[in-house]
Amino acid sequence: MLKKTKQYINGAWVESESGETIDVINPATEEVFGQVAKGNKADVDKAVQAAKDVYVSFRHTPVEERRALLGRIVEGYKARKQDLIEVMTLELGSPVTKSDTVQYERGLMHFEAAYEALETFEFEERRGDNLIVKEAIGVAGLVTPWNFPTNQTSLKLAAAFAAGSPVVLKPSELTPFAAVILAEIFEEAGVPKGVFNLVNGDGEGVGTPLIQHPDVRMVSFTGSGPTGSKIMEQASKDFKKVSLELGGKSPFIILDDADLDEAVKAAVGAVVNNTGQACSAGTRTLVSEHLKDAFLEKAAAEMARVKVGDPQSPDTEVGPIVSEKQYLQVQDYIQKGIDEGATVVAGGLGKPEGLETGYFVKPTIFADGDNQMTIAQEEIFGPVMSVITYKDLDDAVRIANDTKYGLASYLFGKDQETLRNLAGKIEAGLVVINEAPRTRDLPFGGYKQSGIGREWGDYGIQEFLEVKAIAGFYH
Ligand code: NAD
């Protein structure tokens, strides 16, 4: 049993003021495998105070010093590779190969990106006789979800450290152990006392007091829309800056000139990635009426080929859904798809054969639906594809943008001019053409209800900065 029932506050592991704990469940076995502290407001108060005490000194550390710190974190992170992979496979149910190539790598990437960005990042700019300086915003409250335990935390942490802002992190109570390892990495790397504080617990017990704390100057949140909305409302009481990364219902548009086999592989991959638990998943697959039948036949075969099973097995591609609650939500959406008249062409309700224990679902494809159905409008957060047909490219753009979200979008085809033209018309923070790699210097964030602000690399660092204009500095 993994046990870490202390909080990391002011450079030390201390007992939680609550004395309570949270059980952490392995979604592949439904068994408790660990325990962390269930923190409370008193823990939050201590952590915020520690961060506040160190704010001024950390803000004024030379950029080179913060860069060196990030460099040491990169090395420390690499040294804990195996531990991170093991823990994310256990707590998230991420297939072990994905825990390595996706989960571990993403976390690393953000520390490397911040390290690189600091080489050229301009904290000062001269305009005539005047100076503009960008300064660390102050104590930042970070609240993160469970779906990419190191990615979602490290992209905020790397940016805050690069900017010079101390933080209090509240990771998801479903996947808290990756953050515990991060705390150990930071301790080893010499992150100054008070700059990083970890308070484990649930949303109400720790998230709410953190967001409400008067000394927190900024809240960086990743998670669901309803929680994001509550957070924004609370942060508005004393006008805290908010950065929100929320949900998505991203379109995957296949053009008629696409290589169909490649398009099918890419479209299925965009749905099953991370067991469908990705905010940027391309879950609305748009094909022309002309291509529909050929696409569905190949996509059903490809979906049936996807290996669902034990996350510890190296050939597993799709593991369990993270929790019973999320599992039931996915089932509920599949039921809604059926009730609203869409046709199941792969997967469907229930658990895959032989996987009765664990929160496993069947990777599913719906056809004959339209974009107004619940399964096309709401985020399912499971491996469920809704195939929707378009008449022409204007119709494809209309359907793609007919959503409250605007996080990502995917285009697949051959004609460059058509692809670029489409990219300009999609309302989303990210357009990926033909599976092009998303390099770490690209910003990430949403239009519309997918969020406010941008993360990753230098864009992420900007979020943790205030801008000061000093008129007459060079007068
Ligand atoms: P969630 O909103 O339930 O929880 C996210 C975090 O907020 C958790 O740490 C939780 O404990 C905390 N929280 C819950 N209620 C709170 C409250 N009232 N006050 C303060 N904190 C509170 O989301 P989740 O289920 O962990 O994650 C899934 C959702 O996150 C999906 O909707 C997904 O699209 C979204 N997401 C978005 C991105 C992105 O970058 N846009 C990335 C990953 C996940």
Compile the SSE list and pairings:
Blueprint: E1 2-4, E2 6-9, E3 12-15, E4 21-26, E5 31-37, H1 41-59, H2 63-79, H3 81-92, H4 96-120, E6 124-127, E7 130-136, E8 140-143, H5 149-163, E9 167-170, H6 177-189, E10 196-198, H7 203-212, E11 218-222, H8 225-236, E12 241-245, E13 251-254, H9 260-272, E14 284-288, H10 292-305, H11 324-339, E15 343-348, E16 362-367, H12 374-377, E17 384-390, H13 393-401, E18 408-412, H14 416-425, E19 430-433, E20 451-452, H15 457-463, E21 465-470
Parallel strand pairs: 1-5, 8-9, 8-11, 9-10, 11-12, 13-14, 13-18, 14-17, 16-17, 18-19
Antiparallel strand pairs: 2-3, 4-5, 6-7, 7-21, 12-20, 15-16
This protein binds nicotinamide-adenine-dinucleotide.
Nicotinamide-adenine-dinucleotide is lined by residues 143-147, 152, 170, 172-173, 202-204, 207-208, 211, 222-224, 227, 230-231, 245-247, 279, 379, 381, 407, 446, 451.
Task: Describe this entry's structure for a reader.
Keywords: NAD, Oxidoreductase. It catalyses: an aldehyde + NAD(+) + H2O = a carboxylate + NADH + 2 H(+). The protein is α/β, with parallel strands linked by helices. It has 15 helices and 21 strands. The protein has a seven-stranded mixed β-sheet, sandwiched between helices. A six-stranded mixed β-sheet has the order 10-9-8-11-12-20, sandwiched between helices. The protein has a three-stranded mixed β-sheet with strand order 1-5-4, covered by helices on one side. α9 (260-272) links the parallel β13 and β14 (284-288). It starts with a strand and ends in a 5-residue tail after the last strand. The model has no long low-confidence stretch (mean pLDDT 98). Bound molecules: nicotinamide-adenine-dinucleotide. Residues 143-147, 152, 170, 172-173, 202-204, 207-208, 211, 222-224, 227, 230-231, 245-247, 279, 379, 381, 407, 446, 451 line the site of nicotinamide-adenine-dinucleotide. The site of nicotinamide-adenine-dinucleotide has 30 residues, from α7 and α8.
